Structures are given as C-alpha cells and as structure tokens.
C-alpha cells in the first residue's frame, strides 16, 4: 500500500491523460456533428437570404359567390392558409419550418403619372412588407371598395414625382382589360437587408431604360381582387416558408444517414401541406379548392433545399476528410504520450518488479499487478472523459467509443511491464534485436507507402462515418518519417562530434556523441514532436489556403473593387455608378456566346465565349490584368478598323479564320495568337464568365473590335469599378442588394464579398477543428516531452556529475544538456515541417480544397512562414526551458546522489 501511495502522482497523471483520450474518443463524433450542424444552419440561412427555402403556390380565379362566403377579408384568408401549411410541417423538424411571407405578384399595368409620363407598374402584395413604423408618410394600403391603394418607396416617389394622396389611372399593360383609379396612400423606406427588396428590386427604385420607366408598388389584398375581377385572369399566390432548424435538429442531418432523413422529410412534406390546404389530392390542375370565395387549384410545392443539402453533404464529406487528418494526428500524439507515461511508470517500478521476479513471481503476474494498479486511474479517466465530452459537445457522448479508448489505454502499462520482465528480455542478442528493428522499420515504411497509394487510388467518395484508412495514413506517415529521421540524423551528428574532437573542449564531443548513440531511444519523443508539428503545419496550410482561396474566389466574382452586372440592361445606372464618389476608373467587359464554323473546312469550332474588354482602360486601371497584358503584347489593344474580329484563342492556330452568323449577317473571327494560360484565371473576366456555364473555348478581343454589336446582343455586360476609397454606402444607395439575375442589375462590392466569404460555416468548421486539435495536440506533446526528458534526466545528470568531478562548470553543464537535445529538436522541426508541407502532395486528390473556395481553378497552397517559424521557435524555447530547469536541479544535486559504485549503464 505504501508503494501505491508513493505512485499516486503518476496515477493521477495517468487518469488525466486517459480522461483526455476518452473525451476525444467519446465526444469526437458529437463535436464533429456539432460543427457540421452549425455549418448546415449557416448554409440554409445564406441560401434563404435571396430566395425562400420552400414555396407553396396555388392558382386562383376571380371571386365567385358560389365558391364561398365573401364576408371574410382576403388578407385574413391568405394568413389562415399560411398558418395551415406551417402547421403541416413535419414534427421531426421541431418547429424549424416556419411561414415567412405570402406574396401575390400581378402582371404589369400601365399608369399615367403627371410628372413621369407613362410608367409600367409591377404591383405586389407581400405580407412581409414594411409595417406602419417603416413609413415616412401616409399609411399601409388597405382594402376599401373598388379603389386600388398603392404604397411606394422614397426613391420611387422622388424619381416619379409622386406624393401621398395623388390619384392616377391604371390601364392595360401585361394585365389587360384594366381601367381603374389608383391612389398613393403611403411612402416607405426600402432599406436594410429585407429579402423582399432583393426579390423585387423595382420596389426599391424604378428602372429607366431606352425611354421607358418601370417601377414597383405595394398593394393590398383587396386591390388584388379588384384588378383580377376587371381583367378576369388567373393569379398565383405563394406561401414562402423558411427553414431554420435548431441545434440538435441540424446536427441530426449531418452525415449520410442525416442526409437521407432530410430527403425523406422533404418528400413527405408537400403531400401533407396539400392535405392541410384543402384536403384534396390528385385533382390534376382542376380548381377543387377555395381561397375564401376564389376557386383555387391544389397546392404546388417548389424547393431548392434538397439540392442545397446534396451540395452541403458533398462538401461536408470533403471537410470531414480534411478534419480527420487533424483528428488522427491528435490521437497519435495522445497515445504516444500515453506510452511515454507508461514507460515512466515502468521505469520507476522496475527495481521492485525485478525483485519480485527474483523471488519467483512470473512476468505475467507482475504485469497483472500493474494492470490492477492502473485500473482505478483508467476507470476514473473513463468517467471523467465521458463527462468532459458531454459538457464540451452538449450532446450525449459515445460510451462505446469511450470504453474502447479506455480499454486501449489500459493495455500499454501491463504490456510494457511484461516486456521488461519476461524471460530472456535482458539476454537477447544484439544481432537479433537489430534484425527485428530492421524488419519493423521496413514494415512501417511499406505500410505508409501502401496506405498513401491505396488512399489516392480509392479516394474517399461513398464513405459514411469514420474512415480507418484516412485516420491511419497520417499516423503511418509520421512513424515512417521518424524511422527515416532516426536512421539519418545520427550521421551528421557523429560527423559533428568527430569534427569537435579536434577542438579543446570536451562538452561538444560528449554531448553530440551521446545524442547520436541515444537516437533510437528518443524515437517516441521524436514521434510526438514530428506528428504534432506536421499536424500544426498542415492545419496552418489548410487554413491559409482556404483564406486565400476564398479571397481569390471573391475577386473572381467581382473582378475589381466593385462591379455592376447588367450594365447593358441599365446604362443610365451604369453612368451614375461611374460618377459615384471614390470611383477612379471604369472598364466595361462584355461576353457574347458564339458557335463559329471553321473558315477552312466548315467544321464546327465549338461553343465559345467571346469576351471583349477595353485593354487600354484596364491597363490604366492598374489592376495588373493578364487579359490586358496579353492583348497589348499581341497588338490588339485599341481595336481594328471594322473588319475581322481579331482574337486570342484558347484553342486554334494563328491565322485561322472562323465565321458565325448574327442577325442574318456573317461575322468573321481571325485568330491572331494563342491565349496565355493565366488569362483564363484573370479576375477581370470573372463577372461575365461566371454568369454562364463552362464552355469549350475562350476567345478574347478588344472592345473596339465588337463595336458593331448592339448592347442587347451580349449575354452579359459588367462595368468594373476601380477605386481605393469607394464609398460603399453611396453605391448601395444607388443599387441595393438584389437576388441574382434581377432585371435591374446586380452590384457586387469586393469588400462585401470577402466579408461574406469569411462567414462560410464550412470553412469555419474546418478551421475550428484544426485549431482545436492542434492546441490539444500541443498540450499532449508538451506533457509527453516533459515526461520523456524526465526519463532520460538521470542519465544526463550522471554524465554531468562525472564531468563535474573533472572540473566542469555550471555553464558548461547547461551547454552539455542543450547540445545533447539540440539534434533531436532540429530533426523534429525539419521532419515535422517537411511532412506537414508534403501531406497535400502525398495525398493528392484526397485533399481537394476547391469544394470550399470556389473560383475557376484549384486554389494555390499558401504557407504561413511566420506560423511555421513560430512553431519551431516554440519547440526550441521549450527545450531551452527544460535545460534551464535541469541545470538548476543539477547544481543543487550532490555527487553522491547520482554516482554509485559499480554503475556501468552509461
């Protein structure tokens, strides 16, 4: 019992280490699901910023007294049915699916406004329109008799010269047979990030193009009925739903099983909503339902959420692979620390255990006794680890995984004890030991190489849950690196020792000689440091690559400091943006879809994107554009004389002639030269190229060669805005955020795109996992290194004491300790950094980061040199601190405490 009490500190340390490892094993899955759930919620939230998650639609006819009672207000009817479809949402979503808004969009009508002339009005009923507090004048439209009440934004009021109380007639537009008086009853502020403004940007500001004006206005449900009755048309009402799952609900949908469950829910919900709407199914378009006194069709459902889930699942599978490398490195460091701790216990009890063997005890019996000694620590670690996992992840821990880890943690101590005490352990021949070592090293190298090739050949697609191969390969590569280092780094150390022998001092010779001789014994410490450094460098490389890749993808989306897509549809707004405060230069980029024929044999060249850019203006903007540089080098800047369209082509030979027909007229394209490879990645071309899918070829010309084409001929036109001090607020006041593809054009600001890219939940999950695993691995590595240094400290102390009897001073003793550990540290830093940097190349397509960044190409790897240098400096500082402590202890130690007659183990 006295011996057990003496070893209590070691038992406590063992329990803490087991608790950490059990927490990793029991809570790892929950933590991963929690990260995935947060990323999934963020993805759903981002997708639903521009469009509703689920849209239930029903077509309805004008009022019919036979269909139902006309006493109930139509707005109340729409609200009641919105509540019905919300209550029909699956219970498994835990209330995460809510009714967001109800919309009715009418075909345009034409209004004669005194100050603006004839204006095409897009009238919208929206339940999520601004409340009375959002009005600067007047009130919200209401239903009163046969009058049509309208509300407009402040920008629309100013642009069209409207005022509250103004009346004007509505006539035929896209909606025919209309002749009714409209009255402006309110003016609202259209600011903020309300999704209504993105979906219906005409409500925010009018659009003037080619002498015509288009504007939007809010209308009451009663106004919808008045106009529908006059026109006698069928209209459509949309009930928009928003999915905002809670924490545990979103966590449940992460992974392959969760994806299938979500798809089942999305498949079952539409029939439930149809039954809640009117109880009829299978009407095949007939109006068997009613909305108040309006005959209506059954409910139709449209949603992009299943596609969003599929996309997220694909990206999450790749994220899980990237995270698993950090997880595997952490486990490898943790178990190495456990082995080092077990070795410390074995070394501490070795004398007493050998005495028991001499008294007749078997090696198995002593090992069983040691297992019994460690059982309370393992049990305490199991309980504490499970509790820690539950507290950190806020979900129920995996007790099976925790138990498996605890059993694995209980194995090293009795096994090492048995190995140290078994018969013949001290009598084994050196040749036999060296032969076994060579075989073991060869097996490790073969397993590492085989694991890399197997992982590259098999990939990770289709894997659901933890992948043992993905988890094993980093650990195998770490062990293989240590094997090579232990074999290689003693050679230069011995050479340095021989070189130092020519000097006068004995410290370098002794320290370097012992460092070379003890290299195999330092394998565990080297493994801990190499795996920790490799994991940290790989995590830093991943984080840096993701950060730079997202920034590059944002630049590809914008093309400049800001850009306006749809400049050809709204040239007046493009001119106003060009005059905005802070805009220094503007460049127009246009894209035309062509399917040319070869002028030589008439064969198809292939569908191509013909992009025109003002090379001179783009060069003057100082953007360093590869496209502008390529056009200038080919002598194409400035355009031609109105003949052939001269281009640089991604495929084709110089001088080749291509032809295509536009509006019945043949156009000729002449290839002047090959398109440099970096032009396809030029951000200046990103806004127009990203608007369409990938095509077979890219043709680049100067805008001067495309002057013969009308603005409507181009499928996309972008105005690039350059300026170091753009006034984003002013730009947004001119063009508020709009849904992609909006008729009014879309303004993209580089600062906003980069800020949004920084909020990507999946990238944040990968970065958080790597940061957490690296931090915990560093703590475990420090623990293992301190214990390993303490194991070898007596040996170094004896050597220092021998030299002290020969007159060695205190500073020389410190230098002896430092030089003896320096080769180990240098080898660990070189091996760990090299392995971390080489992991992406070794694993190849398994670590594909383009899923997280987007952009035209795979992101370039970005290494944070300062981070790598800080890691190496941290290891060196740790060793220096250990040497300082050891030297201080050595100065206080008496020679008799370490020198014994007959000792020959050093």
Explain what this protein looks like in three dimensions.
- This protein is of the alpha+beta class.
- It is built from 28 helices and 24 strands.
- The strands form 3 sheets. A 10-stranded mixed beta sheet has the order 17-20-21-19-22-18-16-23-15-24, with helices on both faces.
- The radius of gyration is 37 Å and the shape is globular.
- Mean pLDDT is 80; it is low at 426-432 and 901-906.
Radius of gyration from CA coordinates: 37 Å
Beta strands, count: 24
Helix-strand makeup class: alpha+beta
- Strand neighbour order, sheet with most strands: 17-20-21-19-22-18-16-23-15-24
- Low-confidence blocks of residues: 426-432, 901-906
Main β-sheet: number of strands, strand sense, barrel status? 10 strands, mixed
Instruction: Please work out how many helical segments DSSP would assign.
Output: 28
Broad shape? globular
Percent helix? 40-55%
Distance between the termini: 33 Å
Please, what is the average pLDDT? 80
Give the percentage of residues in beta strands: 15-25%
Secondary structure elements and pairings:
Elements (H helix, E strand, L loop, with lengths): L1 H5 L1 H43 L3 E7 L13 H14 L9 E9 L3 E5 L3 E10 L8 E4 L9 E6 H7 L6 E5 L8 E9 L6 H5 L7 E3 L2 E8 L1 H11 L3 E9 L3 H6 L3 H23 L10 E3 L2 E3 L3 E4 L1 H54 L4 H31 L5 H11 L2 H10 L8 H29 L9 H21 L1 H12 L5 H11 L5 H36 L3 E4 L5 H8 L6 E10 L2 E2 L9 E6 L1 H6 L5 H8 L11 E5 L7 E6 L2 E10 L11 H4 L7 E6 L13 E7 L5 H7 L11 E4 H9 L2 H45 L4 H34 L6 H4 L11 H28 L2 H4 L8
Parallel strand pairs: 4-10, 6-8, 18-22, 19-21
Antiparallel strand pairs: 1-11, 1-14, 2-4, 2-11, 3-4, 3-7, 5-8, 6-10, 7-8, 9-10, 12-13, 15-23, 15-24, 16-18, 16-23, 17-20, 19-22, 20-21
Helix pairs in contact: 2-9, 2-10, 2-11, 2-24, 3-8, 8-9, 9-12, 9-14, 9-17, 9-24, 10-11, 10-12, 13-14, 14-17, 14-25, 15-16, 16-25, 17-23, 17-24, 17-25, 17-27, 24-27, 25-27
